[in-house]
Design brief:
Elements lengths: L1 E4 L7 H7 L1 E4 L2 E2 L5 H13 L8 E7 L17 H4 L4 E3 L6 E3 L3 H5 L4 E7 L6 H10 L16 H9 L9 E4 L24 E2 L25 H16 L10 H13 L2 H6 L6 H7 L3 H15 L3 E6 L8 H25 L6 E7 L2 E2 L11 E2 L3 E6 L8 E2 L1 E2 L6 E3 L4 H12 L6 E3 L5 E3 L12
Parallel strand pairs: 4-10, 4-11, 7-15, 8-9, 8-10
Antiparallel strand pairs: 1-2, 2-3, 5-6, 7-14, 11-14, 12-13, 16-17, 18-19
Length: about 450
């Protein structure tokens, strides 16, 4: 996250308070900053960084949604497997999805579904890390992030599509506002690749993103004074840096300042500028307004946006729980896809809807479904994804893939290929060992 902080502690407090200092993320310029990240990205450009402008909007279904109550209904199964809802036809002949998603059904010719995603771990944290990174790594008992997330990889390799915007933004709604899941971070890539987190609900009448304004009483025209201080700090850093990596950092500090001084980011985050009727179509809730905000950010030049759609862990009372989820997700996804198409952005923006696993085929004694990693569904659209496709198939109770099993790494391979990210690129982990972006799987040919 980006802050501008003025003031200091200790014997130099008066001097530092008068001049101020820049802080990006949770680190000051003595550590890893946005400016450092921008410099790294410029270096990556000389090494053949991809030049396409594609981007990703990721609806993250935290907790694991039921695939039967979303994209893989089994209307002919016994009631204890079928669940409380039926299936409806879609715009693609022969393709049915759960009746809770009529707006999805109406635009199924613009969507594709993988029904055979699977892995072999039902622990939330392990599964979450797996689908975000493509690696089996972090666990509930050892939660420290071991591998960088897909958003962080894209942040590192691609950077923003337009200067003055962060490359990776996370929109956490509701009670998850202060949550910082390790699986969404850069791990050994460093804090510069962590998401810029929106610590507010975009559905609120008072929605405002912090850290994009100068503090009260600070004249933006005095930014040059702050930059002089930064230059002095850089000179001090050079006395302990013999690698030459700081050369030219002043130029990148200027770009970092642009994030708050140019107004581009503030405008992109201002969802109130949208027509009220369009906001209604997206849904006046945190998921719907988060999707609209994501579209604004992508349109402005952000490369990867995640939307945290929470509390899919329906161990009990799945009927009211799924009604509540679908009421926000159905219009949000469908309106976003239609909006992207109307704006000429459909071919450039991948829409990804995914959780960490599915739910048990049999409804439990509490009228809910428990964790099930052996089969779950993922939706993709836009960005070069072939539309109207169904990949894979589960058995008659949605328990196991019987056609075309797909691993989390295969989903990520597909996203990376469309964004022009070479998955054989290696980065050094904390032990100094070179680790490829992905070490298994391949792009899903049926979707490309």
């Amino acid at each position: 996250m980006l802050d501008i902080t003025f003031g200091g502690r200790g014997q130099n407090r008066a001097r530092v308070s008068r001049r101020g200092f820049l802080r990006v993320g949770t680190m000051t310029l003595g550590g890893l900053t946005l400016a450092d990240a921008l410099k790294q990205r410029a270096a990556a450009a000389t090494a053949g960084r991809p030049s396409n402008k594609k981007s990703v909007i990721f609806f993250w279904q935290d907790g694991g949604p039921s695939h039967i109550e979303t994209y893989d209904p089994k209307p002919e199964a016994p009631s204890e497997f079928r669940g409380p809802f039926g299936a409806i036809a879609t715009a693609v002949p022969g393709v049915f999805i759960n009746e809770l998603f009529p707006k999805h059904a109406a635009i199924m010719d613009k969507l594709s579904i993988i029904r055979s995603v699977c892995h072999d771990n039902g622990d939330h944290y392990t599964a979450q890390s797996w689908v975000w990174t493509g690696y089996f790594g972090s666990t509930n008992t050892n939660p420290a992030p071991m591998y960088p997330s897909v958003g962080s990889i894209i942040s590192k390799v691609r950077g923003p599509n337009q200067p003055g915007l962060p490359p990776y933004v996370a929109i956490p709604p509701g009670r998850y506002l202060n949550m910082r899941p390790g699986y969404q971070t850069g791990a050994y890539l460093g804090v510069a690749t962590n998401p810029f987190c929106v610590d507010a609900d975009p559905n609120s009448d008072h929605f405002q993103v912090q850290n994009l304004e100068f503090p009260v009483g600070i004249n933006p025209g005095r930014v040059v004074d702050r930059q002089r201080l930064l230059t002095g700090l850089d000179r001090m850093r050079r006395t302990v840096d013999t690698s030459g990596q700081i050369d030219g950092i002043d130029r990148f500090n200027q770009i970092a300042f642009d994030l708050i001084s140019s107004g581009r980011a503030r405008k992109a985050f201002d969802v109130s500028q949208e027509d009220a009727r369009l906001r209604d179509r997206y849904g006046r809730n945190s998921v719907g307004q988060g999707a609209l905000l994501a579209r604004r950010l992508i349109e402005a030049g952000v490369t990867f946006v995640s939307i945290h759609t929470a509390e899919w862990d329906n161990h009990s009372n799945i009927e009211p729980g799924m009604k509540n989820h679908a009421a926000s997700l159905d219009p949000a996804v469908a309106t976003l896809v239609e909006d992207l198409a109307q704006r000429g952005l459909y071919d450039d923006v991948i829409v990804l809807v995914m959780g960490e696993f599915g739910r048990t085929p049999r409804v439990n004694v509490n009228a809910g479904r428990d964790h099930w990693s052996n089969a779950f569904s993922v939706l993709l659209a836009g960005g070069g994804i072939q539309p109207g496709r169904i990949v894979g198939k589960t058995d008659d109770k949605a328990a196991w893939p019987i056609e075309r099993p797909v691993k989390p790494a295969d989903v990520l391979h597909t996203v990376y290929q469309l964004l022009g990210v070479d998955t054989t690129i290696h980065f050094l982990n904390r032990a100094g060992r070179p680790i490829p972006i992905l070490n298994e799987g391949e792009p899903i040919a049926e979707l490309l």
